[in-house]
Write a structure and sequence with these properties.
298 residues, disordered C terminus, elongated, 2 domains, alpha/beta, single chain, Rossmann fold, ATP hydrolysis activity, ATP-binding cassette domain-containing protein, 4-stranded antiparallel sheet, 6-stranded mixed sheet
Length: 298
């Protein structure tokens, strides 16, 4: 499997706080990767490290086979759209296209102008007077017309209304099909990932919780519901992701490639949202378990 991003023990520390910890990943090429997690999970930090805007505090990262902050950093081969869909309020749409052409040697002027026309953007209009959806589409146009091999998107649709968000993601999927792009799309909205992505990374509390092909992950995770039992009694092949219990019943989310043969279990599949929430819940429980009890503090 060829990769567009490879990291090993990657970490970024701000003063005493680790925004990203021990991140070891291989992001496959030719895929649309959903980077999912709550606000503050480390998604933006990871993308900023990948694009070379930050330097690691620990470990290493390679993008398209090169160090993002080195002399041979692959800046011309990577497109980036930040959280605030960066545009310059005082510049017109046409000014943005001229700036893109000046900064990027592989600039596709025809594609940029065609996208602007298809989106109904007035080339003379200043970006500051565009709607949020229009600014997002202008930022995407700049990223795509650069003709990158890898496009990094940091929650570009978070502030958009549902219609503008759907149009943005539809345009993104069409561009992926036309340009053979690799994409990493950061979002805290599972619906966006479900609509556009085929590979998933769940990031919670600065750490990667799970990563893999979405269909394979959904196929290897199950919900088991049945009589209450201790997790230690489950087969070794069933990795417990989360567990909840009542007086009489246990419910587990497990990761397993083996069939569940115990007839006492009611077995059901997970949705993508179920899967993401299970790993987010596991980390929340781990935090709670790590806190000292009141008795211990006395």
């Amino acid at each position: 499997m060829s990769t567009v991003i490879r990291s090993a023990g990657l970490g970024k520390k701000y003063r005493s706080r680790w925004a990203l910890s021990d991140c070891s990943l291989e992001v496959p090429s030719g895929r649309v990767v959903g980077l999912v997690g709550p606000n503050g999970a480390g998604k933006s930090t990871f993308l900023n490290l990948a694009v070379g805007m930050l330097a690691p505090s620990a470990g290493e990262i390679e993008v398209l086979g090169e160090r993002p902050t080195g002399r041979s950093a692959p800046r011309t081969r990577v497109g980036y759209v930040g959280q605030d869909t960066p545009t310059y309020a005082g510049l017109s749409v046409a000014d943005h296209l001229r700036l893109g052409a000046h900064l990027n040697p592989g600039w596709d002027e025809t594609q940029a102008r065609q996208r602007v026309a298809r989106l109904g953007l007035d080339p003379k209009q200043r970006a500051g007077r565009l709607s949020g959806g229009q600014r997002a589409q202008l930022a995407l146009t700049l990223g795509l017309a650069k003709r990158p091999e890898l496009l990094l998107l940091d929650e570009p649709v978070a502030a958009l209304d549902p219609l503008a968000r759907r149009e943005f993601l539809q345009d993104l999927m069409e561009a992926v099909a036309e340009q053979d792009l690799s994409v990493v799309l950061s979002s805290h909205l599972v619906s966006d990932v479900e609509r556009a992505c085929d590979f998933l990374i769940v990031l919670v509390d600065s750490r990667v919780q799970v990563a893999g092909d979405i269909e394979e992950l959904l196929g290897s995770h199950l919900r088991l519901t049945g009589p209450r039992r201790d997790p230690a009694t489950l087969p070794a092949a069933q990795e417990v992701v989360t567990a909840s219990h009542t007086d009489r019943q246990s419910t587990y989310v497990v990761r397993t490639d083996a069939p569940v043969l115990d007839p006492a279990w009611e077995v059901s599949r997970l949705t993508l949202e179920d899967l993401v929430l299970a790993y987010m819940s596991r980390q929340a429980l781990a935090r709670a378990d790590a806190r000292p009890s009141l008795e211990a503090l006395r």
